[in-house]
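Honest question from a wet-lab person: if I give you the sequences of every part of a complex, can you actually get the arrangement of the whole thing, not just the pieces? Trying it with mine:
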Amino acid sequence: MTVLERLQAELGAIVSVDAAELDASRTDKSGWTADGTPLAVVRAVTVEHVQAVLRIATEHRVPVITRGAGTGLAGGACGSAGTIVLNVAGMNRILEIRPEDELAVVEPGVINQHLNDALAEHGLWFAPDPASKAISTVGGNIATNAGGLLCAKYGVTRDAVLALTVVLADGTLLRTGHRTVKGVTGYDLTALLTGSEGTLGVIVEATVRVRAIPLGTVVTVAAVFPDVTVAAGASAAITAARLRPAVMELIDPVALGIVARYLGPNGSAGLDLGDGAFLLVQTDGPDALGEAEQVADVMRAHGGDVRLSTDQESGERLLAIRRMMHPALEQHGTVLIEDVSVPRSRMKEMFEEIARISARTGVAIPVIAHAGDGNLHPNFVIPPDPHRRAEDPLVPDNVWAAADEMFRAALALGGTLTGEHGVGVLKRRWLADELGDTSFDLQRRLKAVFDPLGILNPGTMFEQ
Amino acid sequence: MTVLERLQAELGAIVSVDAAELDASRTDKSGWTADGTPLAVVRAVTVEHVQAVLRIATEHRVPVITRGAGTGLAGGACGSAGTIVLNVAGMNRILEIRPEDELAVVEPGVINQHLNDALAEHGLWFAPDPASKAISTVGGNIATNAGGLLCAKYGVTRDAVLALTVVLADGTLLRTGHRTVKGVTGYDLTALLTGSEGTLGVIVEATVRVRAIPLGTVVTVAAVFPDVTVAAGASAAITAARLRPAVMELIDPVALGIVARYLGPNGSAGLDLGDGAFLLVQTDGPDALGEAEQVADVMRAHGGDVRLSTDQESGERLLAIRRMMHPALEQHGTVLIEDVSVPRSRMKEMFEEIARISARTGVAIPVIAHAGDGNLHPNFVIPPDPHRRAEDPLVPDNVWAAADEMFRAALALGGTLTGEHGVGVLKRRWLADELGDTSFDLQRRLKAVFDPLGILNPGTMFEQ
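Yes, you can. This is the full assembly:
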């Protein structure tokens, strides 16, 4: 029997060879599309389904691409020629919520926001908040160690994962971690698997740490500054003043101009967005207003035109300027969102580097940043090209050249080429540059311990 | 040349064969003493020293036990027959403090408290706070993923480690992680190495995350309850009320009686310690007093006799009841501190199990617990035995039998056999029971990737 026949014989109707479904599995939210067509998409609903797929894949030595909601931004979960796409989006049950232990147990396909909706009834929340949280899965958040807007204050996804159940390449079930806050028995496989992008095993259950929703109201403060250097200086001064905003987002003048035109004069929340830089802060907790007022003082001292909002409605209007950034960019073409991160103190230099790279290459690079943690998203907008043939690459060479310069600049500033999106296929060519040969070689050998046949998401993270 | 001659030829005066120094390296704060005598103690001061030791050890296939201040509680860094003890306590420089990036770079031998003293000048602190912080090293804190009193609110050591420089078994230098809050390039080797107890490599430099010291004064609330079940109920109710104490420590009646006799009537901070259970809470941050008052209300509602202190002096008197616990126990013999952790909701049951085990085995088991995170320290006090011969084991069989029952009870309650001390040699016999065969086998294979010859701290974590 072929591998497809084996899958169909053992798993029946959950094995799809529908052309549209196969095609949809080749891409994600990065705009990347994998070469060729996968053999099948298996819509797993149980742990046993996942184990069966991996057993069969091991026997036939066929690669398996694990996929959730397909919201990745690095091409890390796209079905390519000859692969089995293992879709776990249907494993979407919340298995337990334990307020007294501040934990929840979920299947990997649970949407982040759905988990938060269920937790809210208990006064709890799951802190990892990637911008995609309305559509991305907890399993995908863990597989990429997703970041988001709240990380400087509330940590990255890794900090919220207590335990995992994982199907290994040969179909064996592995349990890691514990239901306790502390636990140091053996190596921290939970952390090793978090952010491993489907290359070490398939997450089929996760025990995550949840928190009490902070008391009090969220307060929003936003300001427009004359340029991005001043805005970055203001954000650094907020951290230096020992304030700890929940959210601190920065939009550079190139990006702000685009979103200002998109929103129109009624969408500017009373601010002159002009060609300035925008800094938005949200504070929470019992002293949210006091902290916000101190933030506003710092912003004013840096020459910002400040708005402070304590009611949800006007706060939402300010936040919309940040939220509408991507829809605004998408009006102009396909958006390639980059994701470098630098030490906070080097953020100003990184903005300068990006401006230089933009000037030199003639590529516009609107930037938004999670300023609290030095994570910048330089965006490349690739306009529709009527002359582009299907076989032409989506990303033109001059954009890759600019991205290459940008990655090297981030590394030179002590940064990293991906703060929260993952390596996927889009950034693997720079992996060894950042890791160095010793780490790169060690990581490949660790991968081989989990996946001796190399069938788990090959091509993601490491070139094949 | 013998391995000792090689070490002496290459490293000169830092290689010691002094009998007292060799002997001192055989033990740690657990009371465990390793069999036999090590070949040498090498007092490394530079990275190159560490690399030389590991190169020579690899060539000669001689085991290396890495050791800092020797404050471990699991026998995990004790020099045994035929080993080289690599002492990195002399690598004790603070290399960088970067307030704007909220990070510090240190050598492994820096004492936790020394780092905190240096950070305090910048209004910063390093959150991991094992009870040993005045004498334990940051390298040792990382090697054991040390916990402490503040973990429920401020995380474990792993959450505070951004990057490591590690010498691998063959002397190669490995760099992991980054100087940024976020970073997802490749596998999280920093987390894998944290808590690996010297079995994967030797930490020679660490980049740690530091925080702004919380604003406001610390407020202390303490109460005596009629029994441990009520006290545990009060601690659970504090968490359920969405309060987030920095410290929440619980002392059971057996332990409280011992410390009360040790402190005498003048040391009881005005409380009738009698034969009750003691719960101590500290709150911090801008609303410390408001939170403390709510904590006091919850305690009173549970029948506690409550004292609330806003001044440092009376707060210290309350805290001393907890702090003097170990000196008090040590008056009665050698103390074996166990370290189980259970989900918070099962803490009451764990106390009941311990009481049952104590009654059944006739072994007194005074318990103190980090109640905020379900981490219990049942103590076995082994009285001096004038009839004990040097070759007799320190820990009598009935104590091991009681400990064995206790570990199994913790696992049955969904807990772990070590919350913060590590496996070392003292708990390795239960390792596979907790991990299960799949994880145990995988962990051994991961160890082999880092240490193919098995020369790094053999016998720690895994039986040889």
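Two things worth pointing out. Residues 293 and 333 of chain A are 39 Å apart (CA to CA). Chain A has a mean pLDDT of 95.
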